[in-house]
Please model this.
Amino acid sequence: MNKDLNQLKKGVLQLVVLKVLSKHKNYGYEIISEIDAQSNGVFKMKEGTLYPILYRLEDKGFIVSEWQTPERREKAKKYYAITDIGEKKLKELSESWSEIVNAVSLFWEGEEKC
Amino acid sequence: MLEKYLRDISKELKVSRKMKKQVVSDLEVHILQRNTHGESIEDIISEMGSATDVANDFNESFKEDGSLIDSEIAIRIAVQIVGIALLLSAIYNLTSLLFPALSLKNVLMELNGSGNVATFVAFKLSIKDILVKVIVEIILVIACVKIACATKK
Model:
């Protein structure tokens, strides 16, 4: 069951990461925390899942990264921000996702009518 | 403790050296960020799992991408084949130089009996030419080894 859920989640993680970054630029740790909190723990991402997604999105030009050094003694943070192409991609993915959700829900609606 | 953990993860990653560096750098910053939010390094590492588990997560995700790793493997194999061919050529030329009796030309002459091997040997190389050829081939072999090592997983 967990394996099935993981397969389903993997497909939408790219969409979720882009959605989080569309609100504001963010760094790895905060991205994981925000996704975890907003999904009520359903999308509890591991580092080994998040960073390859970020690298992939960056390779495709959907996001950009930049190092920022805080004024205090804190370590530098690597911030990720969505690009214009990323915004377009997010819109496309969101529309595709809505279509899938609507199409899948039709099966259950049909079942209820029967 | 953190350094050893990151080093162990790096060892288990099946990606290019460049990607290993990026992963280790991002993980170090990630762990230190969690640390500044109040978690101890020990707790973070314990929660993240063993170095093998973390590396396996990355390897699984990178495997889904595949393209970068596959192209690097293809380049490495191509470079290795060229390197081996050059090495064999250099060994042959050096052997011909040191033991002329073993050179292809002389072997063919022996087989023919007549000594007419014009159809097989288009032009004659001087000792100087062969030496230059051997040196160039050895330099190219070294270059191939360096490229193959640089792209090594």
